[in-house]
Amino acid sequence: MADIKERAPHKAAVVPHAPRPAPAPRRARLWRGVTPWLFLLAPLALLITFTYAPIANMIAYSFTDWDGISPELRFTGAGNYVEIFTREELFQVFFVSGYYLAASAVQIVVALYFATVLSFDLRFRNFFKGVLFFPYLVNGVAIGFVFLYFFQDGGTLDSLLGLFGADPGHAWLGDPTSANTSLAGVSVWRYLGLNFVLFLGAIQSIPGELYEAAELDGATRLQQFRHIIAPGIKPVVTLTVILSVSGSLSAFEIPYIMTGGATGTETFVIQTVKLAFQFNKTGLASAAAVVLLLIILLVTWVQRRLVPDERVDLV
To answer: For residues 299 and 244, is the Cβ–Cβ distance under 8 A?
Structure first.
């Protein structure tokens, strides 16, 4: 019988604890907390100086009758705001924004259509992308002058219609309805490219495997749009709606160049500029600018409440 040797139990190996790092000096910790704010110092200073400070001054001026020149300011309370909503000639500019709101809806639908079509394999699609985006690159003043000659009596549009035997018999910019419709159409032509690029980028960010799987399942283009593209670009659609609404309420460049606000085409911003620099009513103009800002914020808030952002997982 083999001898069984008793083995002494092994003692558990003792692993020495790693020494704790010494705490950073107080000055180093202080600099570590201050460093991010040092990088933010310059942009915050610019933001406060050129954005928030002017807005604060504008709000303060809206409660005065300042003419923009005199050093004296007389407090008028809410009189400027009451005047904006009670004087018919000041309030009717909101109805002009309706033309641009309708045009923005058309603009979004058309841009979404072209973005969807050109996201698939199509001949000359890069050429069509450039054609659609090119108007957005052109200066707004140049566009205003080009379309001013386009819509004038005997201009380009009348000449084109004359080739087909049509005689409009009226000035396109001569009455409020046709003038506002024409100006809104020019806005659609110019800003269509921006929405098109936003939609196209969102559509191309959707994984291509989804389209391949849908085609294998026999899905049509319309079904692919409904079940793949539309849910995938919902955040971008929300963004374009907000931009379109704010742009419709603050339309200025094209109507100011083409008509100067005449024949019932005066927008809210054109009216504000005239109040401040033509009639020297800076206080009233400041109140109008505050009202415009509040309307845009309200519309944005309502839109965000009705259509909240939802994370869409397509894969």
So the answer is: no
Tokens of 187: 């806005």
pTM over 0.85: no
Give pLDDT tens digits for 154-208.
778 888 888 887 776 678 888 888 899 999 999 999 999 999 999 999 988 888 8
**268 in Cβ contact with 247 (< 8 Å):** no
d(CA 64, CA 252): 25
- What end-to-end distance do the CA atoms of the chain give, in Å? 70
Q: How far apart are CA 281 and CA 279, in angstroms?
A: 6
- Measured distance CA(70)–CA(79) in Å, rounded: 19
Q: How far apart are CA 315 and CA 231, in angstroms?
A: 12
CA quadruple 204, 210, 215, 220: dihedral sign: negative
Q: Following CA atoms 202, 205, 210, 216 in sequence, which dihedral angle do they give, to the nearest 10 degrees?
A: 80
